[in-house]
Design goal:
The chain has one domain: Nuclear Transport Factor 2, Chain: A (Roll). It has a four-stranded antiparallel sheet, covered by helices on one side. It has 154 residues and is an alpha+beta fold. The protein is globular.
Length: 154
């Protein structure tokens, strides 16, 4: 009898804790958030590794002026060595709406080095916009972190 009472009490407590716990995001939103985080990490890695093909594979065909962007990235990758790019994913806010594009607000910092210019450092906060169907980058809202402005560090 005492055993049954103890089991019933434990079951009741378990149900109570489960019902009072914080609501979890829907599985789809959690999956989409993880995919966006993976793509952001991949973009930074391929950029640093100077893998233009892999980098551009993560950029949507609908990206505004995609051809000019690819030409600019190609010039950056050939001019600077090494390149260090960091997206601070612990400070990232991923907004997954019911409909529309996914937005990831993220802090970033980067260093570009070259013999002619020296070192360029920059950083800030930017919003990266992704297509929820294929997780490709469709826009950058704010200063584009992949295109340095030549202001050498002295």
């Amino acid at each position: 009898m005492n055993r049954m009472l103890a089991l019933a009490s434990a079951f009741t407590l378990l149900i109570t804790f489960a019902s009072c716990s914080e609501k979890k995001p829907p599985e789809v939103a959690a999956y989409q958030g993880k995919k966006v985080l993976d793509v952001v990490r991949t973009l930074a890695k391929e950029y640093q590794d100077k893998d233009l093909g892999g980098f551009m594979d993560k950029i949507a065909r609908t990206y505004p002026d995609r051809g000019a962007f690819e030409t600019s990235i190609k010039a950056v990758l050939s001019r600077y060595d090494p390149i260090r790019m960091t997206f601070h994913n612990t400070k990232m806010l991923v907004l997954v709406p019911d409909r529309g594009n996914i937005k990831a607000e993220v802090n970033w910092d980067a260093e570009w080095r070259t013999g002619a210019v020296g070192m360029i450092k920059d950083g800030g906060r930017v919003t990266l916009v992704f297509d929820p169907r294929d997780f490709l980058l469709v826009a950058v809202e704010g200063k584009n972190p992949f295109l340095p402005v030549e202001k050498p560090v002295k």
